[in-house]
Amino acid sequence: MERAYQILVVDDHKDIRDLLQRFLQQHGLRVSTAADGVAMGKLMATQRFDLIILDLMLPGKDGITLCREVRSTSNVPIIMLTALGEEIDRIVGLEVGADDYVPKPFNPRELLARIKSVLRRHFAIPTLDEQLSTSPTLYRFADWQLNTLSRELQDPQGALVALTSTEFTLLLAFLAHPNVVLSREDILRLVQGRGADVYDRAIDTLISRLRKKIEPDPKQPRLIKTIWGGGYQLSCEVSHG
What we know:
Domain OmpR/PhoB-type: 136-236
Subcellular location: Cytoplasm
Keywords: Cytoplasm, DNA-binding, Phosphoprotein, Transcription, Transcription regulation, Two-component regulatory system
Radius of gyration: 20 Å
Helix content: 40-55%
Organism: Shewanella fodinae
Largest sheet: 5 strands, parallel
Number of strands: 12
CATH superfamily of the largest domain: Response regulator
CATH topology of the largest domain: Rossmann fold
Structural class: alpha/beta
GO biological process, one term: regulation of DNA-templated transcription
Number of helices: 9
Number of domains: 2
Shape: elongated
Oligomer: single chain
CATH class of the largest domain: Alpha Beta
Strand order of the largest sheet: 2-1-3-4-5
Strand content: 15-25%
Distance between the termini: 36 Å
CATH architecture of the largest domain: 3-Layer(aba) Sandwich
């Protein structure tokens, strides 16, 4: 890692906090720790963190509640830790905004790899609000036009096609990255901005909805292609003005 990212570890077990602090600092990360949501809140009020490692089972407010509260005001990456192994716990964590999920007991090196992966995705891809602040006013693709100011989509015949807020964010993500394979994780990151309410399991459904609006034959898509094992790709040239 080129920069010293600031990590917040929230866990009620002191041995885990100390272990992670020592290990992560040895690998170039700056680490603060908190034993519960109260201590976490005090640290976040005075410091900026690049990633939070958040235990699911905490005294007072649990990790799910804290994750939901953080996500309501911030898109800081969150990795959930838990001793519970049921799939429903993982799903709930992701649905409330966690970026990844690591069950206990875990190998610190695996957690470090997850941290690097999440940070790489988070800082490499701009959020929706960041895209809108730098994006062109008008995108043109396959005889379609998208106006980013009015959020109006115009088909090849000139008719307007209504888009939901989430469909707009998804289309903008593809237009900003034409002919680039975007994984579900990339797409999730890209659409997590103002007006977007989507989680990993909904990506495929959202893609299907957008295809029905812009593809001549949604069952045989030519614009938004499925890349098996990779994700999705907008397969056309894009110009802007």
